[in-house]
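Researcher:
Attend to token order:
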Amino acid sequence: MRRLRASRALRAGFAVLAVAFLVSALVSQWGKAAAALSALSWWSLTLAAGAGILAPGAAMLAWRALLADLGSPLPLRPAVQVMFLGQLGKYVPGGVWQVVATVELGRDHAAPRKRTFTATVLGMAITLAGALALTAMALPFTSADAAHRYWWVLALVPVVAVALHPRALTGALNFALRLARREPLERSVSRGGLLRALGWTVLGWALLDVQAWLLVNDVHHGGLSDFLPAAAAYMLAWSVGFLTIFAPGGIGTREVAMAAALAPLMSWPQALVIATVSRLISMAADLAWAALAFALGRLALSNQGRQAPQPAGNVLTPAALHMNESTNRGSDPRGEE
């Protein structure tokens, strides 16, 4: 991590590698997606893509609320840069690079490592807790077979719920910091901070569930009755993909889980169409937000260049201006009169 922070070449290389993995994943999915896209109407694809692109913005605001609660409030522009450039790390095999990149980018904006690390891990935990809880409530009523197959995912609901209590969170994080020979957190996570983050997270999940419903309804034509199965299938698929860290970004496992959950509504090939298009939208959203973050960074550098202070030798103090005026008056023939 020290080398990553100290070397501009290493950081640039990591960013290029992450984007390369993301683009490779997009290309690998494109063959399936091309046929899948033709099976869906343009209006459902457009609305689903819009919802899918907006959802990560809500996740960023949840993470920003947690970081502010821990004592490091970030303006919106740096928050976008840190969150979405760091997010590219999830496509690099290893399962930890998203956290590493986010922590190091946070240091560029005066956010201590332990606070950024805590906010990032908490954001992931809250997102997972919301997905698991909502899936556990809906999935048994929509797909008993998927609930039976992925019982191990749903069994984590009470564990994650207990772990999200502020006291449990603070104790666990401080214990981890002691093991790493680091100072404990200066302040604990407050209930208000958790609730704000949870509110943004719920908004993000609502947008993603709408995305899933638009795609499912376009194939199944069940209207509002398709919403609950579609939402449960998407949240289960995301949870499975998140927990299988050996697959970068959950590629592969996520699609299988979503197709299994949608099996009661449609055939397996149709379910795979929904899963593939959903994955494509997710990766396109990550790429779009990363491009925005990069553009904001370039804009900030450009503004700093234009607003750079003049050299010290060219700056005249009030006293110097007064002396210049006196000298000018002394050399003026009219002043001698």
